[in-house]
Structure prediction request, 896 residues.
Amino acid sequence: MKFLIIGGDAAGMSAASRAKRSMPEMAVTVLEMTRDVSYSACGMPYNIAVSGKAIEDLVVRQADVFRQKQGINLLTGHRVEAIHPTEKTVSGTTLQGEEFEFPYDKLLIATGGSPIVPDFPGFDLPGVMGLKSLDHGRKIKAYIDLHNVKKAVIIGMGYIGLEMCEALRNRSIEVVMVKPNLNFIPWMADELSYVVQKEVEANGVNLHMGHLVQKIEPVNDSLAVVCDDLTRDADMVIVAIGITPNSECAIAGGLETGIKKAISVDRQLKTSDENIYAAGDCADAFHVVTGEKTWIPLALRANRAGWAVADNIRGKGKPTELDGVAGTSVFKVFDLQIARTGITSKEAIKFGFDPAEVVIKTRSRAHAHPGSTTIMAHLIGDRKSGRLLGAQMVGKEGVAHRINALAVALHAQMTVEQFSQTDLAYAPPFGPVWDPLLTAANQLLKRM
Amino acid sequence: MKFLIIGGDAAGMSAASRAKRSMPEMAVTVLEMTRDVSYSACGMPYNIAVSGKAIEDLVVRQADVFRQKQGINLLTGHRVEAIHPTEKTVSGTTLQGEEFEFPYDKLLIATGGSPIVPDFPGFDLPGVMGLKSLDHGRKIKAYIDLHNVKKAVIIGMGYIGLEMCEALRNRSIEVVMVKPNLNFIPWMADELSYVVQKEVEANGVNLHMGHLVQKIEPVNDSLAVVCDDLTRDADMVIVAIGITPNSECAIAGGLETGIKKAISVDRQLKTSDENIYAAGDCADAFHVVTGEKTWIPLALRANRAGWAVADNIRGKGKPTELDGVAGTSVFKVFDLQIARTGITSKEAIKFGFDPAEVVIKTRSRAHAHPGSTTIMAHLIGDRKSGRLLGAQMVGKEGVAHRINALAVALHAQMTVEQFSQTDLAYAPPFGPVWDPLLTAANQLLKRM
Prediction:
């Protein structure tokens, strides 16, 4: 059997490795358009933060290991331009300009996503860059060194923008951030968002909410980022306004897509074509809270989906069906940990729930224990069913892993009351007797 | 209605406060045998660690606040010696030697536990002390100062013994630990227990497993701890071989007790007498994994049970039934976090499960992220039902709150496969893409 994979990062290489391990006789070919495979994309801001550190440190497994030790036919510099489901082939062009065509019995589309770049003047100038692939990271690092970047503008204030602002501040680069939305972190309760905003500003970052960038202009050796009533000059501009699934070939090949044009897959990761799977940032998923389709591009899902595809192509026993995503994520910005899982109250209303919510402020350690800091939690439940729907947390410690307890509760479809009864760990250095999550659940119960 | 409470710490004062808040007209009386109420007992080792810090810092709410602001009739120095269920009274003696008797309509026994002290020679010598009440902590602190303690022997290596060993080492006191069992932490997988042992030894603590203390003898101004083939001298001896529920009065009053003589209660915290409740370290609980009775004295349960009793005495709406305990706990010893939840494989066999288990060793942060340390996890599942049964973890970071995700899974009766599908948070500073819990679950699945 010929198993062909488009894309050589998390989902693609997870699938390739697992397929080859469980079915050594299978011909596994991976077509990767860049020269990089299997790297920790999420680690890029932390690598960029350190001058002189090779971006290649983020490569988890070298291409030659996949080729020589694992027997995977891994072809880098191969850009797929078309999928032909009837012929069961894909075609494209190499970086050297040679055309290629590969047949498949089973195809996995793991093309990931790309940074959204608005079609405004100047976004194609040198020094204006997005961050998604290792090559993006490589270019940003090289640009900082080559142009001795002292001032940067980051467009967008999502988690990549915020991680990048910390990275650039670590390199003593002046950072200005700008975006059209007036809310700093719009998916977050105001009280929590404000804490994050203060932390970012305390680290010398200038935030400008409410400004849509209209164009970027070259000014001598640098750039001017021009909004309606604000202009900021910069040596470098990072565009971090989100990513979009790389689904063009899938759409052209006739595959169904859904939310944000992500490729539609079932719980077995199968697309609308029975021989084609999709996994990773290019594919959608079911949300465990709403039961509906969602598109939340995150690394764990990509790896997990890659494995599931390999298992389902192997086809032994019952098929692997993925439960879905809770949208659990965490990021760090300066000294703060910011985490979320599930849905917001706005989303809850949209999906027909009757949300109750509470924001609590408590401490990260026990009464009288030194070193305690503030933890804030926002918990959302459904008045109709009693179910827990989502949560957000902010704090200097004890946030990143605490959110997982709530994520598990969402998978288990727990009610707020059931969650409030859970027996969570307590010791003075790690939290109050009533864990912040339980305090939040207890308070939320009063509003339901 | 007269609500009488025996014991003024976590369970007792939680019940008193909540009862008075929801039923201001109720006469709430608390009889506490010591002079201290409402303190963070778990914080004592951390307080003892700091010379000159008042042990009273651990008091969460002063007695006079309960009396004057909350209107609770709080009587300290009142030792209850008998419960008379037929007469609905309790009787006892004050510290001043005066006899008393109080009537009740509803009684809560929240008498806590006491350190186990073996009936061997010398365990009653001055300088030989257990640690449970604030008064114990006060005595230990005073003894260290007054006798200029330079050397200590700790008998027992449970979490209180280990927390105390860190506290004493922080005060530059030489520490020897001794116990009869050859296994350092017997409820833990050897690989994990060994990591903790090495950490304790690296901090200059001398461990002697396999030695039963037979007597303690006074030697000039100090003490000699004598085992069969080992004698160690010490200025102070801490006895930390466990605690036992304070259930004598309950037993004498005819109430049913169960495991380890803890007072038997139902899910509403009611004892075998319909007017008497029990909560906290003196009472038993249902275990969420086994469904059977267990006795795991922990602070969260005490607080939660106190609230539940107050709610059930109020009696509005449906009664509050507690789900049970998972036995989730965490403690810190030097630079390590040690956590557990659920049952061990030994316990699993005892309760009729067919346990599969796995120990994994992974990293606390993502590939290539600086500052990463080792995390070890031991996961136990049931081959018959597929259920997750328990877990233990050890590491320098990311253990204390991670265990809660597993605790929630135990409450939800999740299978290992369901848990393996959960969408946990990922960011490079906080863990690998595959969270250690998921790696453990994936590995465990192969053995089930």
Chain B touches chain A through 67 residues (CB under 8 Å).
